[in-house]
Amino acid sequence: MKPTKPLIKICGLRRPADADIINDFPVSFVGFVFAKSKRQVDINTALEIKKRLRPDIKTVGVFTETTPEEVRKTAERVSLDVIQLHSDEDNNFCQHLRDMTIWKSLSIKDGNVLDRAAEYDVDGFLLDAYDKGLWGGTGKSFNWELAADFAKNHYTILAGGISAENINEAIETVRPHVVDLSSSVETDGFKDRRKIEELFKALERK
Known about the structure:
CATH class: Alpha Beta
Order of helices and strands: EHEHEHEHEEEHEEEH
Strand order of the largest sheet: 1-2-3-4-5-6-7-8
Largest sheet: 8 strands, parallel, barrel
Number of strands: 10
Strand content: 15-25%
């Protein structure tokens, strides 16, 4: 049974002060980007942010183009709750980390990409827009109709270009278990309290 209201993940926290903002809202997950990105953080920064988060908020580490050993090292140092693999990792890579909760990203170029879910034994799939040369974080959405039935069979995290303006449409179309937001709740690359508040107000109007 899919939830009528998905959980909310805010990705790309970069400052300890971001935790103070997040704590005031019903956010279930936050994301630390350890991959090369404008939102990349190091282990020490992630630990500082985590210290200030509400204890019920789960932490997700975002990784690309690395090794299972490096992922594990970071996950253990930060005590991550979820590993989010965002590049071309195969199922063998995932199985080296199978004692952890793993979300594998799929970049949706067309409906055929969703068939790749059958190749993986993981805990969930993050669906994001395809953008050549990028592994995610594009701020762009894809055709949600392509994934209209995906969450019936897979734990689904929907990402890519979701904002207060379209979040209810995204939920109605895909019925994801988690909605992942980043750039739409930022100003000048940092989390913005007002925009997060607008997001939850939009959800309340549903």
